[in-house]
Amino acid sequence: MITATVAALEQHRRLADDAWIYIETETEGPAPEVPAHWQLHREKIAGQVAYRLYIRHATPEKQHDTD
Questions:
Q1: pTM above 0.90, yes or no
Q2: Three-state SS at 60
């Protein structure tokens, strides 16, 4: 579910460059798959919940558009 949501956000361009994205998942299971231009800023576990905060950087294509 998280992977599909992340893909939809990117595909439909719903996030600004330098957006901060907060994701919660169950601790059992792998970290969500996110695009390479999302940088993990912080990660914590509280009970059965893992939460992660990512910073979305401009995609390489977008960086070239502004050069």
A1: no
A2: helix
